[in-house]
Structure prediction request, 372 residues.
Amino acid sequence: MKIISIQVNAIHLPFKNPFTIAYETYKVMPSLILKMETDDGLVGYGEAVPDQHVTGETWESTLSNIKNYLAPVVLGENPFNIEKIHDKMNAVLHYAPTAKAAIDIACYDLMGKVAKQPIFNLLGGAYYQSLSITHVIGMGTNEEMIKEAKSAIDQGYSELKIKVGNTPREDVQLVAEIRKAVGPKIKLRLDANQGWKQTTTALQALKELEKYYIDWMEQPIIAANRVGLAELHQRTSIPIMADESIHGAEQLRELISLNAIDLINIKLMKCGGIYPAQQLVHQAQMAGISCIIGSMIESSISTAAGAHLALSKKNVVANELGSPLIFSKDIAPMMYKKNKLFVPQQPGLGIQVNEELLKRLSIRGEEISSSL
Prediction:
């Protein structure tokens, strides 16, 4: 079996409502949907959702990287040769993990379809039966965020992630009001997306936040300041999670050596796909660090890929794979019930892509074919 063609559709996924974090407000989410075909007629799907603030990749550069560098070197390969495929991609293009993730996910989709198994069975089998979803609340006014928190609880969610990153005083007031509104039993997680920037600013906030029973504090300061994360880790009782600070094995090794974190947020778009994400899970487990599977706000394709990984790994203690719920249109259905995501049991990713809707949402397309 050989890969003979790769098609990429550049699309905009529309949100039901604008989504705001510390560094950006999104009205649509730019995404690249990759369709990989083999010489025996099988099709696998992948996705790339770049974020220039995190990996330095843009929508346009990711499309170019796939077309001009990555697709040509994987044409003719067997999708099961995933380590070799990553090695070939790394040889022609340094970094660019989001572009590589799209190819990686499509390869796994094909592997599962050939083996007639869902991807999680290729990763060690199901450790969990279903996944509890954390509801993520984007930045807004205190009143808007409290209203959304209450609504999420009414819908059955028991885990909330609150986007912060204003001044410490504003963020502490917000968390105090949300904790009062939802009660003591609801799990609260905070994410500043580097918004507090400096260690001293973050420490001011964390000292005040300790009394509100926070599960963990995600990326309070700028990504490059890993020494600063270590200082925070040593001076607060709130567990510290790295997101933008951890992309691959090298950053994780540094964070482990600094004793800087309790948890990491693994995103397929940051690390290059399922294959390198598995390695991060195992590396973290050896160091006693827990993992969550996050999202760059992705369609059902990458969401399904992350879900298969999360379902199969004991060291993945939570996930944020609810992005399809906040789009007004998505290219394939996923099964959610209250706060649960039920991972597809069909071969590969296990989802059925709506090709007609994909065409309607497409802004640009590219196809790279082989004569093999």
User: Anything to note?
Assistant: The domain at 121-342 is CATH 3.20.20.120 (TIM Barrel). The chain has a mean pLDDT of 96. The chain has 13 helices and 15 strands.
